[in-house]
Amino acid sequence: MLRDEIQNALKEAMKNKDVKTVAATRLIIAGIKEKDVVARGKGEKEAVEADILALMQSMIKQRKESQKIYEDADRHDLAQKEMDEIEVIQSFLPNQLSEEETVKVIKDVISAVKASSMKDMGVVMAELRGKYAGKMDFSIASTKVKELLS
Fold first, then answer.
1. Which tens digits make up the pLDDT trace of 13-71?
2. For the stretch 89-123, what's the b/e string if a residue is b when 16 or more beta carbons lie within 10 angstroms of its beta carbon?
3. Whose CA is closest to 34, among 43, 24, 46?
4. What distance lies between CA 96 and its chain's CA centroid?
5. Are 56 and 30 in contact (CB under 8 A)?
6. Which of 6, 47, 56, 83 could make a disulfide contact with 51, Cβ separation 3.0–4.6 Å?
7. What is the pLDDT of residue 150?
8. Rounded distance between C-alpha atoms, residue 61 and residue 95, angstroms
9. From residue 141, how far is each of 107, 122, 138, 147 by CA, in Å?
């Protein structure tokens, strides 16, 4: 399970005194705990793996945005810190679909849900999130869905 993998990575990083990995895994664990609190509020025991994968993807997105800001401000040290965190977070994610695979999957989902216009974008995106959480960059997918439904 993904939770166990993250906890084991934290323990291993602590043993190896890998400060970067320790910091990044602690951030992930804190995010998971927040997701668990939200899940308990909904009457569930804990956050499901799809929620954790979505959390990690949003963490990566945030860090990419921060990295760009730091690069623009000539703060290469902070930009590198963000890149290090991205690398650790990505190590827990499944392999991402390529752009071509993403387009193929989107076309398959569009035909499966019989989407025909932009009104159906929410349905298509919900289906994609349900089936491909952690495997797809949803900012790219959103753009592709808009192109295909326009």
1. 999 999 999 999 999 999 999 999 999 999 999 988 888 988 998 899 899 999 999 99
2. beebbeebbeeeebbebbeebbeeeebeeeeebee
3. 46
4. 10
5. no
6. 47
7. 82
8. 16
9. 11, 12, 5, 10
47: left (phi over 0), alpha (psi -120 to 50) or beta: beta
Token pair belonging to 23:
């910091």
pLDDT at 87: 94
pLDDT (tens digit, 9 = 90+) per residue, 68-117? Answer: 999 999 999 999 999 999 999 999 988 888 888 888 999 898 888 888 88
Judge contact between 109 and 123, C-beta under 8 A: no
What domains, with CATH codes, occur in the chain? 2-90 (1.10.1510.10), 99-149 (1.10.10.410)
Collapsing DSSP states into helix, strand and coil, what is residue 121? helix
Q: CA 149 to CA 145: how far, in whole Å?
A: 6
**What is the token pair recorded at 75?**
């703060």
**pLDDT attached to residue 139:** 79
Residues 6 or more apart in contact with residue 71 via CB below 8 angstroms: 79
Q: Where are the beta strands (DSSP E) in the chain?
A: none
